[in-house]
Design a protein that fits this description.
The protein is an alpha/beta fold. It folds into 2 domains: about 180 residues, Glycogen Phosphorylase B (Rossmann fold), CATH 3.40.50; about 140 residues, Rossmann fold (3-Layer(aba) Sandwich), CATH 3.40.50. Helices cover about 45% and strands about 15% of the residues. The strands form 2 sheets. A 7-stranded parallel sheet has the order 3-2-1-4-5-6-7, with helices on both faces. α4 packs parallel to α5 and α13 crosses α14. The two termini are about 15 Å apart.
């Protein structure tokens, strides 16, 4: 019997993390020929994840250029994937999330009439420009997808309400699969100068486009107010490689003795940092899902979130980007142990660690593969 061929396409570190468990279970299936395609939207950060999960790419479009625009990423990805699909058309393409790589891959597959499976389908903020361009990307992907792999019941409702075509399946979020696998090894996180036992370490990440410029300055001021009020705290902030993000943060925060600006942590180090941190301040989507599984409160540095399940469950709070909001909510958790414990012990709504296996079974059924 000829094996069905599936292409799994990714370009950024979050995609690599969330697709790693999917790639592993698909490649372990004797009924499927699975190939991994990199667009190159990110480079070093994706390679770290591939090495951690012992994955290899079959094709690399190598699109990355300095200061590339969204149009650059989209156009080069479309051209590269078009050539690849015309050379060897797969039976199914899998994409993840809401990146420009995921959108371009979905559009390229549609142009070749190749069915698409969308991992982490159905997230919504109902604001096309927040987050930007992710909200538009995921809505456009949903219009062209045949298999919607929704991580939560709310995501299922969002898809049903928007009247998308294709099958909708509740699977859980694959990031929990990845997180629990790595956390089980109890990874280390050695950052020069960071004394985990001496300080209550706040782990922060900031990178989203809607936070560039003035919001980034406001966030930094909020961080400084927290450290000024609570001398037993320190801030660990791995910097995104984009100079638009890292240069202002280096200028605003780089001279504080209890702020530790580092290069991006590899995924194992990041998991180790989450395990040791007191709480998280982040505009990341993935960390809103991951940290609650390790009992860490998450304060979201955004005005909206496409993961309201975390807010409803009590594992995360929206604090925005104004210094006052960041300071007041963080101060409450640092001062009130009961408030902290309520968030730390809330149940993570994002999955049980078996999402990738469910996605494999659904894809096999869709392709007519006998289980």
């Amino acid at each position: 019997m000829t094996k069905k061929q599936i292409y799994i396409i990714l370009g950024t570190r979050p995609e690599a993390i969330k697709l790693a468990p999917v790639i592993q279970v698909f490649q372990n299936s004797s009924t499927i020929d699975t190939q991994v395609i990199l667009t190159g939207q990110h480079r070093e950060m994706v390679e770290q994840v591939m090495q951690l999960f012992n994955l290899k790419a079959h094709h690399d479009l190598e699109i990355m250029q300095p200061k590339q625009s969204l149009s650059d990423i989209t156009c080069r990805s479309l051209r590269g994937l078009e050539a690849l699909f015309q050379q060897n058309q797969p039976d199914l393409v899998l994409v993840q999330g809401d990146t420009t790589t995921a959108f371009a891959a979905t559009l390229a597959a549609f142009y070749q009439k190749i069915p698409v499976g969308h991992v982490e389908a159905g997230l919504r903020t109902d604001d096309l420009f927040n987050p930007y361009p992710e909200e538009a990307n995921r809505r456009l992907i949903s219009q062209l997808t045949q298999l919607h792999f929704a991580p939560t019941p709310l995501a299922v409702e969002n898809l049903e309400r928007s009247g998308v075509l294709g099958e909708i399946h509740l699977t859980g979020n694959t990031v929990i699969d990845a997180l629990l696998t790595v956390a089980a090894s109890e990874p280390a996180c050695h950052i020069p100068g960071v004394e985990w036992g001496k300080y209550r370490v706040l782990l922060a990440t900031v990178h989203r486009r809607e936070n560039w410029g003035e919001p980034l300055h406001d966030i930094a001021q909020g961080f400084l107010q927290i450290l000024d009020k609570f001398p037993d705290t320190a801030l660990l902030l791995p910097l995104h490689r984009n100079p638009t993000v890292r240069e202002p943060l280096q200028a605003l925060l780089g001279h504080h003795p209890r702020i530790f600006l580092t290069e991006p942590l590899d995924y194992a180090e990041l998991v180790g940092a989450i395990m040791r941190a007191h709480l998280l301040l982040t505009d990341s989507g993935g960390l809103q899902e991951e940290a609650p599984s390790l009992g860490k409160p998450v304060l979201v540095l955004r005005e909206t979130t496409e993961r309201p399940e975390a807010v409803t469950a009590g594992t995360a709070k929206l604090v925005g980007t104004q210094p006052e909001g960041i300071f007041s909510t963080t101060a409450q958790l640092l001062s009130d142990s009961t408030a902290y414990e309520v968030m730390a012990n809330a149940i993570n709504p994002f999955g049980d660690g078996h999402a990738a296996k469910r996605i494999l079974q659904i894809a096999q059924s869709y392709l007519g593969i006998s289980l």
